[in-house]
Specification:
The structure holds two protein chains of two kinds. Chain A is about 40% helix and about 25% strand. By secondary structure, chain A is α/β, with parallel strands linked by helices. Chain A has two domains: about 5-20 and about 65-145, no CATH class; about 150-275, no CATH class. Chain B has a single domain (about 5-180), classed as Fe-S hydro-lyase, tartrate dehydratase beta-type, catalytic domain (fumarase, Alpha-Beta Barrel). Chain B has helices at about 10-15, 35-45, 90-95, 105-115, 130, 170-180; strands at about 5, 20-30, 60, 100, 120, 135-140, 150-165. In chain B, strands 2-3-4-5-7 form a five-stranded mixed beta barrel. In chain B, strand 6 and strand 7 form a beta hairpin. The longest helix of chain B is centred in the first third of the chain and has 13 residues, at about 35-45. Chain B is globular and about 45 Å long. The model of chain B has no long low-confidence stretch (mean pLDDT about 95). Classes of the chains: A alpha/beta, B alpha/beta. At the A-B interface, helix 3 of A face helix 5 and helix 6 of B.
Chain lengths: ~280, ~180
């Protein structure tokens, strides 16, 4: 049996998620930020964390985006193989949702054509970057993740030698966060993808960012690595906004995948303190 | 307690500011980011008119989200300053006193801050909703066709900022990190 999902439903859902992700700070992020206010050592850093929480209140109450950089719209689709999309083209429906969400939601349009020459703004924040997984079932899960330029510019792909092992991974992550400093708007969430190949490692690092903050990694070895990385990242001293402090990251999330005998790819993707993403299941 | 600072900045005010100072800015600032900087420097090279007089002024690296009806401005937080590093020394040489953004500046910019008597402030990146409430007036004064990259003249009240690079060579990003670093 197949289940029909109409494209207008997909468009309206994407439009809503674009707005919600830009206006409503996740409850998981709010609780981790509140904890950080208590544990942070630097007075200036503490005050900065409090202002980030006040910003979220104003954003939700007055519908002013959390950040003026409303991001590249990254859309992840988990499409059940028993779903039939009716009424038109799935990807065009997603793009139309982004177009409507960014226009009707007074969100900033930041996408330009001809990236190394004219850089003409498309004026509706399309095209979105769309990733699709086909999965069992008859539902469509949609994740909208607006990703800011400041944090995305700090991404890294490092192709380690297998001999560098776990320590090599730790060193690569610390180097990336240390060099990024204040640029990705700390306190950040650090996404780390280990294994696969070049593009798989980057994709894993981005997907890892979607796990709710505070949820433990189900794999004990990865959970231990996350905990060590978080402690070490927070020893770098960068602190909220780079002003100095003990809260450089709110979380480190690691995902791994098998890889070639000759390789140890590590993808690193940093997410600002707004950690924007919203999900829906149709 | 934060210190109240009037804009435009005077040389005395600039000299009195130290890295790590918590300030509230009051007065007029101009918004310009990537393409606007490119055009301002081109105008300087060609000797044509600049969108605003640089002498004593403060530039805010920012590109707002659109204002809803009834709002002065949309979300209005800082963008990454490093992208303006190649232009900033030229502007300081022409009299610019203040820069507001987020993130580290190059060694060349830090030297220019000392040489020309300027100051670099950080606003909180990702606090665009909070910062928008301090903007009391906003008008487009140049390059309207650039949309979010147009040059704006803002009047602000109690705009929160932190001094990062002062005229004496102080650098909060370096000092702050060194102070809390335990590796």
């Amino acid at each position: 049996m197949t289940r029909d999902i109409r494209i207008d439903h997909i468009t309206s859902t994407v439009a809503r998620l674009c707005q919600e992700a830009n206006l409503l700070l996740g409850q998981d992020v709010v609780s981790v930020l509140k904890k950080a206010v208590d544990t942070e050592v630097s007075p200036l850093a503490k005050e900065t964390l409090q202002q980030i929480l006040v910003n979220a209140d104003i954003s939700a109450r007055e519908s002013i985006p959390l950040c003026q950089d409303c991001g590249t719209a990254v859309v992840l689709l988990r499409l059940g193989q028993e779903v039939r999309i009716s009424g038109g083209d799935l990807y065009e429906a997603v793009q139309e949702g982004v177009r409507q969400g960014y226009t009707e939601g007074y969100l900033r349009k930041s996408i330009v054509l001809q990236p190394f020459s004219k850089r003409t703004n498309t004026k509706d924040n399309t095209p979105a970057i769309i990733h699709t997984d086909v999965v069992p079932g008859d539902s469509l899960e949609i994740v909208v993740m607006p990703k800011g330029g400041g944090s995305e510019n700090m991404s890294r792909l490092v192709m380690l030698s297998p001999a560098q092992g776990r320590q090599g991974v730790i060193d690569a992550v610390l180097k990336a966060v240390d060099e990024a400093g204040s640029n990705p708007c700390p306190p950040i969430v650090v996404g780390v993808g280990i294994g696969g190949n070049a593009e798989k490692a980057m994709m894993l690092s981005k997907e890892a960012l979607l796990r709710p903050l505070g949820d433990p990694n189900p794999d004990p070895e990865l959970a231990e690595l996350e905990s060590e990385l978080l402690q070490r990242v927070n020893s770098l001293g960068i602190g909220p906004q780079g002003f100095g402090g003990t809260t450089t990251a709110l979380a480190v999330h690691v995902a791994s995948f098998p890889c070639h005998i000759a390789s140890l790819p590590v993808g690193i993707n940093l997410l600002c303190h707004s950690a924007r993403h919203k999900e829906a299941v149709l | 307690m934060p210190r109240y600072i009037s804009l435009p900045l005077t040389d005395e005010t600039v000299a009195s500011l130290s890295a790590g100072d918590n300030v509230l800015l009051n007065g007029v600032m101009y918004v310009a980011r990537d393409t606007a900087h490119k055009r301002i420097v081109e105008a300087m090279e060609q000797g044509t008119q600049l969108p605003f007089e640089l002498e004593g002024q403060t530039v805010y690296y920012m590109g707002p989200s659109p204002a809803r009806p009834g709002q002065v401005i949309g979300s209005a937080g800082p963008t990454t300053s490093g992208r303006m590093d190649s232009y900033a020394p030229r502007l300081m040489a022409a009299g610019l006193k203040g820069m507001i953004g987020k993130g580290m500046r190059s060694a060349v910019v830090k030297e220019a801050i000392k040489k020309y008597g300027a100051v670099y402030f950080a606003a909180i990146g990702g606090a665009g909703a909070l910062i928008s409430k301090t903007v009391k007036k906003s008008e487009i004064i140049a390059f309207e066709e650039l949309g979010a990259e147009a040059v704006l003249r803002l009047e602000v009240e109690d705009f929160p900022a932190i001094v990062i690079n002062d005229v004496h060579g102080g650098d909060l990003y370096q000092n702050g990190k060194a102070r809390y670093r335990s590796v």
